[in-house]
Amino acid sequence: MKTTFIIVSLMIPLIGIGLNHIYPDLKNQVLEVIITGVETLNRILQEGLYETVLSSGKCLKDGEKLFTKQQLAKYDGSSNSQAIYLSYLGTVYDVTKGARHYQTGGAYSFFAGKDASRAFVTGQFDADGLVDDVQDLSLDSFGDIKQWQDFYDSEYPRLGKLLGTYYDAEGCPTSAVDNIKKMLDQWEANQEANNKENEIFPHCNSEYHAETKYHRVWCTDKSGGVQRQWTGVPRQLYLPKDKTYRCACVKNFGQSTAPTIEYADDENDVPPQQQGADGSARTESKQPSLDDNKGDLNNPRIKEYPECNPTATECVLKS
Questions:
Q1: Which of 43, 35, 102 lies closest to 72, judged by CA?
Q2: Which are the contacts of 280, defined by CB distance < 8 A and separation ≥ 6?
Q3: Cβ–Cβ under 8 Å, residues 200 and 104
Q4: What is the mean pLDDT of residues 203-208?
Q5: Coil, strand or helix: which one is 117?
Q6: What integer pLDDT is reported at residue 44 of this predicted model?
Q7: What mean pLDDT comes out for the span 12-16?
């Protein structure tokens, strides 16, 4: 059918030339009919109003099929559908074995027969939210996006691709797929950086009782899930992204693991107490030294809890 569309498109100018010489009065009327027919054929191809599922395309793997949205909608878990399919980021999965979740009335029935990738992350289950586009979501959202992608890849058989946002008429990835990959790579790079930071500044143990407002933080040699050969002391660690602090166990002896005053291009990268009088970030840098013997206590993102003993491994915070 795609070949037919191309052939007819090429014939239009030739037909116009012929009619212009033979029946000039009929030329415009005939061409209008032909063009309307071609536009209709093109709409059929684009909107999937034809019934045949494309099973060959230069980017489709053996056994894969290319679905249109209309074709996928037939497998929505309703009483008229034997199998149940859904698409996630343009990949179509057979979720029939999870019918109790995806069939009409099931907890995830709104995902069946469509690509609603966005709603998996946002939880917006109305017409505006049950769509496939996730490219404008925050970088943090891509952790959940990857988690759902891994889930469907491991739990359900892949059937093919969905024509539209992520795959074209040959089953080849669109620029949207490249954008998703870039965001996932960036998210993974951030995760690696966060993991490294958590090794240097492990989270404190913490307990809090709402009734009494009792809040205690403390450090051990495995607090924050980081097994190590030192305990550290509780300190407030500045988080530039959130512009807030969290409790961290900080190594308080030996050589530091980072410069005591870091270079910063943006005053938002360092806590307020490390900014200059004009609000700009300080740019001095003091490299680690064995002579300091203070570990990471001089790091610019670290500050003491004023109500606590600076050498103690635990601290009871005041409300």
A1: 102
A2: 267
A3: no
A4: 94
A5: helix
A6: 47
A7: 53
